[in-house]
Amino acid sequence: MTSISGRFVTEELPSPGQHHSGLGDGAVSTQRADRIFRWLMTGSGLLVVAMVVLIAIFLVTQAIPALLANSANFVTSRDWVTAQPMSFGILQLLWTTVSTSVVALVVAVPVSICVALFITQYAPTWLAKPAAALVDLLAAVPSIIYGLWGAYVVAPQFVPIQNWMGTWLGWIPFFRPVGTVTGGTTIFLIGLVLSVMVLPIVTAITREVFAQAPRAHQEAALALGATKWETIRIAVLPFGRAGIISASMLGLGRALGETIAVLLILSALPGGTEWTWSLFNGGETFASKIAADAAELTPGLGTGAYIAAGLVLFILTFVVNAAARVVIARRAAFSE
Q1: With 305 labelled, which of 21, 50, 126, 242 sits at a CA distance of 20 to 30 A?
Q2: Are strands 80-81 and 2-4 parallel, antiparallel or unpaired?
Q3: For the segment 192-227, what is each residue's pLDDT rounded down to a tens digit?
């Protein structure tokens, strides 16, 4: 009840259960949008999980008949005969795939950490952004370009380096010179090319992690008299350790599945070649082997042998990523 010019006017007040129509409509609309968004997110997550499960089921069902018909040990044999009688194994493929990826990580991860630290800790603003953009551009280069560059530009220049390493480090089984591969197109070379390919992935992730390191911790270290490197060592690197592991595992997954560059660069070994641990030898990875023989694949047990190899690569990638998640989870729990 209000007074206007000496008169009392009675106003009708809303009842306790009554709401303003505009506000009520907005609340209902917001709740409906939230439900739709939640359904979409849930459906997207389930779709990804279902795709992975269906891929795994397809690989297993197609690989089992070939594995049952295989007369050799699938894990320890180096033979690859997909015609009847079938005799195939993945030892050589597994060694080449793992060794090239490990070489790539050993070279790429330290360089990526140094580049990320330079961009986030040392470079001025006018240089940091262009430098980050240039590194990210490496990820946009197609694999076939890296393959052509490695095969026709890097490989001939790599021969003297390979010969020098074989002469001085030949007592190490990994660097023992072999005469089966010429022209420098070896496991070690493809590992170096793969390191350039995974460099932008590892650098981008570690750069973002280092950029989020608490400034208060860094300023406190500097205030206590720590040098720039000591500040990075005690305040930045420990904070970014989990991110470095994540970036390394993503780069490892990229290296494990690379196909075209490996197919163009790495020299395949003829059948019956003597086994060697040397990185200066040739070989084939899972991906390059499947790609090289893809034109000859026909439905049947022979194709199942290649699908079995693909299944091993699928499991290897899955295990690597799962292990990375476990390590990161433990680091997070330890930090808390």
Answers
A1: 50
A2: unpaired
A3: 999 999 999 999 999 999 998 888 988 898 888 889
